[in-house]
Amino acid sequence: MSSMPKEDDRIRAIAGHLLKDVARRILDASPEVLKFAKSAILAALSDPSIMIRNAASGVLVEVLGKLEPRNWPECLQQLVHTLEVVDGDQQEVALDILKRACSNYPEKLLVQIDGSWSLEYMIPTFIVLSEHPNAKMRAHAIACLSNFVRIGCNSLFERIDAFIACLFERASDEDPAVREHVCRALGVLIASRPEKLMPEMVNVAEYMLYFTKDKHKNVALEACDFWITFAETPDLTPNLRPLLTKVTPALLDCMVYSEDDMLWKECHDEDPAVRDKNTDIRRRLWSLRQYAEAALDALAVRFGADLLNVVLEPLKMKLWSEDWLQCESGIFALGAIAPGCIDAIKPHLPTLFPYVLGALNHPEEHTDLIFVPTLHGLLRMAIDDNKHVQKAGCSALAALEEEAGPDLAPYLELMLRNLVVAFETCQKSNMYILYDAVKILADAVGSALQNPTYVRILMSTLIKRLSKLKKNDDELVLFLQCLASVTIAMGPAVLPYSIAIFDWCHTVVHASLAQYEACQQIPKMDKPDCSFLAAFDLLCGLMQGLGMKLEQHIVGSQSKIFELLTICMKHPHAAVRQSGYALVGCMSMNCFPLLQPQVPSIMRLLTAQLDADPEIEFTSAYDNAAWAAGEIALQFGHDENDFRQWIHPLVSRLIVILLHPKAPPSLLEDAAVSIGRIGLMHPALVAPLLPEFAQAWCQALDEIRESEEQDSAFRGLCTLVKMNPAGFMKSLLWFCNAIVRWTQPSPELKDMFQQLLNGFKQHDPVGWAAQFVQFPPATQEALAAHYGV
What we know:
Elements: H1 9-21, H2 31-44, H3 50-67, H4 73-85, H5 89-104, E1 112-113, E2 116-117, H6 118-129, H7 135-150, H8 154-157, H9 160-170, H10 176-192, H11 194-197, H12 201-212, H13 217-232, H14 237-240, H15 244-254, H16 259-268, H17 288-303, H18 305-319, H19 324-345, H20 349-359, H21 375-382, H22 387-404, H23 412-425, H24 431-445, H25 452-468, H26 476-490, H27 498-521, H28 533-546, H29 551-554, H30 561-569, H31 574-590, H32 592-595, H33 599-608, H34 619-636, H35 641-659, H36 665-681, H37 683-686, H38 690-700, H39 708-723, H40 732-739, H41 747-763, H42 765-772, H43 777-787
Antiparallel strand pairs: 1-2
């Protein structure tokens, strides 16, 4: 259709959109089809119709991402040539394509073309185009450059001064889209290369303060995001402290409802008693108020009492204002700073708390959106007829649950009886908050929910709701996530309800996968969305709660769970594959005897997923595959022959991941944990490989998140070191740095640390001393204090 100009443009554009939808399968096309598609797409970019050019640009972004620029260099050449030579509409289309490519897959654009690196001529071109007379071109050019800052591109950093100069030049640009991208670029720079902005920080701060008050919402949002990044970067604290007296008032002003906010509320919330539509479940986009709240929260966490000293007086002025808008924004701001400034706020509570309590009776409903005083009050609000009061009650209840945790156990019957009433009275737009409140409660009180009375109160309501929800309901995913947490907390007590839950999940997953397979054969069919993936989370919840008690469901005559699992593990959609491997890991942990007969086929698929440089969208799937491998190794146990055949292919791939310079951090961590766990079970086979990965292993787990997973992984490493100490000496510094980051290792792990450290010191006192003096002082002090070495 790209070469049929006499056809209706709308028909031709639809052809382009259809091609975009199947672009993910371009790699399966024959060489002839692929060659024709490339030629046709590039030709369509020069079509006289803007509709066709736009359709072609969408297709090109998708196809270029799948093929990768290194396999289609002529495409990049044509786009850059268009930027340099052609003016007008075609130039704008080319830059729009590059902007989307830079946003979606910037790393893939670093390729060699005719012996030169592509970014070596693209980045200077973008810098030049930031001065283009067309505002859209200027905005696109700055957007492209910002994405290369985010990935640490050397080609840009070599020209960082020119880039910063162009940002300052465009800081007062008349076009709001350009100013928006300037703010975003400065936010990225303050996070990645703050030293480059420090000489001009006074000017940058003035710019961003000015932008924070910009009349164009998106510009102000980006400016607020800049302050969030600034506050969350510890090394910049000394630079930010002198600005508090200017930044804080600007953020407080942003927290007042704007005229647009009020107009929106009038259009959408005319009558608090009006029933919501089904579409009202969808979450609303963040507002400037919420960005300002997040920025103030970050400042409070960073500066604590120092921020309160700055904000207290203007905050009091707002709280005691006769203007309810100012009053409401003051309560909103108080809620934002409270977690970070709580110790400093305590002396002021005798004044503030009675005020906030009194605000519950304020004639304007908005003031009860932040603080509520007691559990009883919260529960009453959650079942109030006014949907705004409902929202406030459920939100505050969720916050209280997070803080109180297991201390809520004595009040569970009271809470549950009110919450099940809320399921009947809560408006559609508030259901996601109610689900969140129930989920957080289950996570907070855990096994306390296993009381038969509590199970009966809550589960009968949840099963009833499950039977009513349709697969395409907007709230389904949120409900299933809630139900998954409840089933985990209730554990064995949920067994009477497990058949209904398991059969529902099985049916939904089977139908969705069947629909997907059908739509591959009949392109006109609607593609299934991936909402059914929440059913996998619910299955995991059942397995965590019931373990082997699910045997009759999993191996039952009607169950095809392993067949479905195999389909998911090789599914072309990243999210489906991710859920498949998550379920493998979950079954390994909770009902391994049922999974064990399927392990040979699972391991063949799993091992193939361990790629050191995955496509971005598949990173989480590969994370789960690596994690599942370690879980399976643990379940097989020590030196189990049935698992030995997988050790070499697994560990060799995991080592490649650890040593790869571009492997995602999450994948590095999961790879290291799995190597440690495999080593714990099969040390004789893994210990000889220790010199290859020891340092990279310690670096991958440098940020200790104390958990059973990491505990077992470190026990595995210690076992390997004990078996092959000579292969570890060059990595001793990294190992010791990791040891001292543990604050509460398990007794077994701490004993292993102690034995190894004593062994290194006693075996070679001179060598130990020579290495020890090179350790950072903090590491030396911690080793001496906790391990006496």
